[in-house]
């Protein structure tokens, strides 16, 4: 697993005497101590400072999108304390007029919209392969899963509640989850805009736009010939035209809904090539610092418990325990296949600049160290044309982390 540590500032590190020159460097996450050195090696991870652009961060993880099209499951997850920049890293900044929307500024776009664009760019490079892309968006709020695409955002306060089940083959699935076929990055991002408007936010003393839920965006790539209910492939060009391909990131969910066709995941009869999961976790939080009470305090308790469950799962995986406690939380149950299955998993640690956040920063680094100890083995390759899997079946895979 590669672990990125964005937004560590000089003041925090120099005050701890742990930041060498040059400023951008690599962190030995197992210690954790800072080491000077030109290249990341085993046990080290790239670190990004506050001045680093979103494009640079995405540039480093772009190869994962190539892996996706080569048939690997991929999961990219942002972890860190509240207000440390997880949503900024994964989605981009909030829109100034409406904190539930993303800013339109292209240079600030986060990993999710950039991944959508890169995915369709790579697909367009190889039309003979051209998989269909189905997107689902869920949030886990107070240990309940909500389908954020199940209802129209104008009529629903929140998406509809779902359950995770473990299939006979041992994979986790959310039955009847709404999946929407998208034929372009514009459509993909349009769905994200629509879904995140339903995501629960509450102001806290630490962060006025604090996300109170875990957001999980899943893109399932399926062989083109297998999905009878998705938009016909020949319509892709016209759909892109209608959605405004020249104005890629400015699609507003309020302007027009994306040209997508709903697909019930249970109806998939084709072959899944690979799955991309993009996860913006809710922030770990000390209730005394964030000043939460009432409903927000209850949310904090659920958030911290689910993050503790995630740490427990990573601990059990790293110690090769017989029992991995995936079912202790909806978060770990839902992400079971990505955390302990055959996915390439990239964990991004976000830490807040400033001396007062040192304790939380060190806690986040310890979490990263634990994740790092999970045994890594080469991912099992699934050639797109020969060894495809049925949805929900999967190949028997040993835990494989990047
Ligand atoms: N690298 C950055 N450059 C500029 N602004 C940033 C950066 N990182 C974070 N921010 C800003 O800091 C604020 C908090 O960031 P963000 O909403 O991403 O935090 P978070 O970790 O997702 O918090 P929470 O867990 O409470 O939802 C936002 O206004 C965001 O735009």
UniProtKB/TrEMBL annotation:
Pfam families: Kinesin (PF00225). SUPFAM superfamilies: P-loop containing nucleoside triphosphate hydrolases. Keywords: ATP-binding, Cytoplasm, Cytoskeleton, Microtubule, Motor protein, Nucleotide-binding. ATP binds at residues 80-87. Residues 1-374 form the Kinesin motor domain. One of its GO terms (biological process) is nucleus localization. This is Kinesin-like protein. It comes from Peromyscus maniculatus bairdii.
């Amino acid at each position: 697993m590669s672990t990125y540590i964005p937004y560590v500032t000089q003041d925090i590190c120099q005050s701890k005497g742990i930041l060498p020159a040059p400023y951008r460097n690599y962190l030995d996450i197992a210690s954790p101590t800072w080491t000077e050195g030109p290249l990341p090696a085993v046990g080290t991870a790239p670190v990004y400072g506050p001045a680093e652009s979103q494009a640079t961060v995405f540039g480093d993880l772009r190869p994962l999108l190539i892996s996706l099209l080569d048939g690997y499951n991929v999961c990219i997850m942002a972890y860190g304390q509240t207000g440390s920049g997880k949503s900024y890293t994964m989605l981009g900044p909030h829109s100034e007029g409406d904190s539930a929307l993303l800013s339109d500024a292209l240079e600030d776009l986060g990993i999710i919209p950039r991944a959508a664009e890169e995915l369709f760019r790579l697909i367009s490079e190889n039309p003979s392969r051209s998989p269909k892309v189905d997107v689902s968006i869920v949030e886990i709020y107070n240990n309940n899963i909500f389908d954020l695409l199940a209802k129209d955002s104008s009529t629903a306060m929140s998406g509809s509640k779902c359950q995770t089940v473990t299939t006979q083959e041992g994979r986790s699935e959310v039955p009847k989850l709404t999946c929407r076929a998208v034929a372009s990055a514009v459509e993909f991002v349009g769905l994200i805009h629509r879904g995140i408007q339903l995501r629960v936010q509450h102001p806290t003393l630490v962060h006025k736009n604090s996300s109170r839920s875990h957001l999980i965006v899943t893109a399932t790539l399926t062989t083109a010939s297998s999905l009878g209910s998705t938009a016909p492939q020949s319509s892709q060009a016209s759909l892109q035209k209608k959605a405004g391909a020249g104005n890629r990131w400015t699609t507003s969910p309020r302007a027009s809904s994306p040209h997508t066709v709903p697909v019930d995941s249970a109806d998939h009869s084709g072959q899944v090539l690979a799955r991309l999961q993009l996860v913006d976790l809710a922030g770990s939080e000390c209730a005394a610092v964030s000043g939460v009470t009432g409903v927000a305090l209850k949310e904090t308790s659920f958030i911290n418990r689910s993050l503790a469950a995630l740490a427990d799962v990573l601990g059990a995986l790293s110690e090769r325990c017989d029992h991995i406690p995936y079912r202790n939380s909806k978060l770990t149950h839902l992400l079971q296949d990505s955390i302990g299955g055959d996915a390439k998993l990239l964990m991004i640690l976000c830490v807040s600049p400033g001396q007062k956040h040192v304790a939380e920063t060190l806690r986040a680094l310890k979490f990263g160290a634990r994740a790092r100890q999970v045994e890594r083995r080469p991912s099992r390759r699934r050639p797109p044309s020969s060894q495809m899997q049925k949805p929900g079946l999967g190949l028997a895979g040993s835990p494989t982390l990047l």
